[in-house]
Each structure stands twice: as C-alpha cells, then as structure tokens.
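S1.2 Input.
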Amino acid sequence: MTVMEPIILGIESSCDDTSAAVIRGRVMLSNVIASQQVHKDYGGVVPELASRAHELNIVPVVSEALSKAGVKASDLSAVAFTRGPGLLGSLLVGTSFAKAFSLALDVPLVEVNHLQGHVLASFIQEEGAPVREPSFPYLCLLVSGGNSQIVRVNGPLSFDILGQTIDDAVGEAFDKCSKMLGLGYPGGPVIDKLASQGNPSRFTFAKPHIPGLDYSFSGVKTSLLYFVRDALKEDPSFLENNKEDLCASFQKTLIDILMDKLVKAAKQTGIRQIAIGGGVSANSGLRARILSEGARRGWQTWLPPLRFTTDNAAMIAVAGYFHFLAGERAPLDLAPLSRC
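S1.3 Output.
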C-alpha cells in the first residue's frame, strides 16, 4: 500500500515579505513571495506599513501558491506558519490567516520558528532535481538582518546555539554601513555589488575580540563611521571616489569575523558538514569564502539557492513538515511572538 506524503501549506509573514508555499513531502510545488517596495523611501522597514501590506497580500498570495501547485485547499494535510521571531503586527496577519484557514478546512495547525526555517532551508527538494542535503549533525551559520548565530543542528527538530551576536546582527551592519555611505536600503545587495568592483585590502577596520563563539559587529560600524568622518574632513569627495574600495574592505571585515568563529566552531566540534542560511547567505563574498574554506579544510558545504536565502514560505513549509511528522500541533489560541 502506497503511503501518501502530507501536503503542507506554509505561510511566512515575519517582516516585509508575504509568502506562501505548498510542499508534498519535502518537494516544493510552489513558492510565492510578494515583496514590499514602500520601505525603501524610509531607509528601513516601517512596521505599520508592513502589517497593512500583509493584509492586502495574504489572500492573493495563498491563492496563487495553491493554483501554481495544482492543489485544492481540501487536499492540504496541515497549515504551517511563522510564529516568530519578527515584527509583531506582520506576524499577527500570518498567524490569524493560518488559524482561520486551518479551522475552515479542519486540518492541523503547525507553528514554526522563523530561524529554524532558515536553518532547514537545505532540505527543500525541487521536482526533478537530485536530492542533496546535509547529514546530521551539521553546523549552520545563520546570518540575517536580525540574527547572527552558529547553530549545531543535531536533527530536524534539535538545535544548539553555539554562538551568537551580543549586539547587532551582521545584516544590520550591512544596512547601517549603506546608510552611512548614502547607498540606500536594503544595504546588503548594494554593498555586495560595489564590493565586487573594489579592493578588499585597501582599508582596514577594527575587529572585535570576543571570547568563545559569540559575535559583535557594533565596533566595526563605529570604526567605519570615524574613518569616513576623518577622511571627509581632508577630502569632501572621498566617499564618491572610494565607495567601491570602502564597500569591499568593510564587507571583507565582516566576512572575516564570521568565518573566524565558524572555523573555530568546526574545530571544536569536529563537524565538517557546514551550511549557511538567512538573508546574508546571499552575499557573494560570503558564499565564495565558505566554498574556499570548505575546499581547504575538507568541509562538505551546503549553500541554499539564492531564492531560498530571503524570507520565504518554502522553508517554513519544510520545517512544518518535520513538526507535523513529529505529531506536533499548535492550538488555535496561540499568539505570535516577536522574540523566540
């Protein structure tokens, strides 16, 4: 007798992207994302505007995800949703819709931690593509606008945080650097593009000395701020004439900090399965460095496709799949959490 794989609808609304995805087992059938452009005018995400946009986007996004997957709502085995962490108003929209949808369909509701979704993004399978995924345990460098962590992944539902930022996340450092240099928001992609045209050894910025496996990025931003301030006093056109080298040098500094601790974690644990996840894992410099370090140190490296690095519902659906198989169910009175 053939056992049918569960069909999971995933819903992601933790920040400014409204996303819905459908998976059968771990095979992605659809992954729809509606991004919000309004925040560029403000240099960062405006929570109230984000939650209002989610309200407008959630129904058409879910409808499109089901349609692209060729799945009827009645075919769903469960609804998985991001409970947190994230912006509370944004999370509330996704949580409320997921509850209503699961209640109307009389199917189980499954909660997912947004960060665990990023960590498990390597387990998304695509139709017709060869299955390639890390084995347990593996280390995941989780890097995004709100989080920077080294996570030991013991199993699909077992995680140990070995190190994390004690102040700013690396994605926040990219955004604030971009703002300092007048490059706009979001900063990561802009800096990455300019860095590819610059000399990463041209300028040197301070690196923190934090014990253990924890990170700190606030001092690097301060170092850049003072350096640029002093340089502009001597040459008002300094920024315009050196932005590529500034971006390349700043990006290299951040990557050096990330990689120093990741190498240390790999040595301490003896784990050679290394993955990355989160929005900053789209950074071309970081991806190249992971691959080069992996080749030099005998690691097996796992880099998610770029479309799975940003906030997306496919990773929520896959994480939800593991929770569903474990028999975990969320009650209808569950509240979203801005911090988990």
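S1.4 Remarks. The CA atoms of residues 231 and 238 lie 7 Å apart.
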